[in-house]
Structures are given as structure tokens and as C-alpha cells.
Write a structure and sequence with these properties.
Radius of gyration: 21 Å
Number of helices: 4
Number of strands: 0
Helix content: over 70%
Largest sheet: none
Shape: elongated
Distance between the termini: 28 Å
Length: about 90
């Protein structure tokens, strides 16, 4: 980057930094969303909540269905070889 280009684009530096940070946050959120160990842990927490009676059965079934859909998606991506590739 030349001196003049650097000076002209200097006011955009905060925007570029914000965009970069947003991209890193999105990548981390996606990694957490498709982490099998996190999904298994959440399923175990739902089982514990069922035993304790802290959630009603409808809420537990809905949460389990969502988690199982995510788990199936993770495993499909692993089979297809698309897990970890940029979106």
C-alpha cells in the first residue's frame, strides 16, 4: 500500500477493523454451533433437566430435536468434506 493510498484510506481503518472483528466472531460462533462435543454436552444437560424437572417435556423435546438436527448436519458436512471450509 502506497503512502497516498494509506493516507486516503486511513479514515476507513475503524470500519475495516470492525469488519475483521465481526468476521472472527462469526467464525467462532459457527465453530461453536457445529462442535460435536458441545452438542453432546447440551444433550446431557437436557437429560439432567428432564430428571430434575426444571423444564417441561415440550421444551426438552424441541431442544433435543434442534440439537440432533445440528449433529446430523455436522456429520453430513464431515462426510462431504465441507466442515471447516469458508462459508
Amino acid at each position: 500500500m502506497g503512502l497516498i493510498t494509506g493516507l486516503l484510506t486511513l479514515p476507513l481503518a475503524p470500519v475495516r477493523g470492525t469488519v475483521w472483528l465481526a468476521e472472527r466472531i462469526a467464525e467462532e460462533a459457527e465453530a461453536d454451533l457445529y462442535d460435536e462435543s458441545a452438542i453432546h454436552a447440551a444433550l446431557l444437560e437436557l437429560d439432567a433437566a428432564r430428571e430434575e424437572g426444571t423444564l417441561d417435556e415440550e421444551e426438552i423435546v424441541a431442544a433435543e430435536n434442534e440439537l440432533l438436527e445440528r449433529l446430523v448436519a455436522v456429520r453430513e458436512m464431515a462426510v462431504e468434506g465441507t466442515y471447516g471450509e469458508p462459508g
